[in-house]
Amino acid sequence: MAIADIHAFLQDLHTQLKPLSEGQLACYIPELAKADPHWFGLSLVTLDGRSFDVGDAQQTFTIQSISKVFVYGMALEDYGRENLLKKVGVEPTGDPFNSLIRLDADSKRPDNPMVNAGAIATTSLITGKAPADRLNRLLAMFKRYVGREVFIDMSTFLSERATGHRNRAMAHLMLNFGMIDEHIDEALDLYFQQCSVLVNVHDLAVMAATLANQGVNPLTGEQAVGSEHVRDILSVMYTCGMYNFAGEWAFRVGIPAKSGVSGGIIAVVPNQAGIAVFSPLLDEHGNSVRGLRVFEALSKQYGFHLFDLCLGRCRFEAALQGPGGPC
Ligand code: GLU
Hints:
Radius of gyration: 19 Å
Strand content: 5-15%
CATH architecture of the largest domain: 3-Layer(aba) Sandwich
Structural class: alpha+beta
Order of helices and strands: HEEEHHHHHHHEHHHEEEHH
Number of helices: 13
Bound molecules: glutamic acid
Helix content: 40-55%
Largest sheet: 5 strands, antiparallel
Shape: globular
Distance between the termini: 11 Å
Number of domains: 2
């Protein structure tokens, strides 16, 4: 199979899945309910910088929970893994992303950085003298991954800030139990801002490809995060990245991934590619319905599952190299 076939395969998947109308828009954040349910874009970026974009690849949307992956990387850099582990665990919960259930006197720290409680705690650890410095550091970090300046969608930020009572409740509970310090309003603002960063599906694939490439953006050559942190980031994505579907995702698709309630999913094929899908209709777990279908098909087609030991690298590399390739 040649490169043209990868593009054709993505195009076919897009055509096949476009008519799906299952799922719901996220409407607990009023701005997200304005999304067009027909939006559907796919992007795959390889480590030698080739991009395969299909469908609504230029449509912008807010990154939402996918931001948690990258802010976690920043916290690892700021704090080091052992210190950070004392503040935020790495245990999957099996509960919904916005659950308050485990925030009690016995829990010393939020379970993991991919659920809202853990993400808010992680964001509260980002260093900087004042809120503007912390925000600027965060935007500079996203810029390294995306390869261009990124901006915050003010309407979504304000919408989340005005309605994010559940997230506020979590922050207050964590403060009550001594899990985070008292600057919770600043931490929540920064968290709502990181969720409101505007991206398109191609940007997300570049970000995923950067993680697949040991932290180096394959398009710009810039180191976005220290390579020593990538293993930890990918481990947490693998075990906790797909809400309370993480186990089934690991079983079916088998690559580190993260999804967000605006309908994005990123997945990292270590040493090979970054892949992203955007389609805002969500299933009951909060994962993009079309997105799940795309990744299941891709994983099967190219043997991406990390434990697909025979097919793994071979099929995809053969597809990239075309006839005369390694397999
Ligand atoms: N900003 C959203 C929230 O805090 C992110 C949720 C998500 O994408 O999972 O609820």
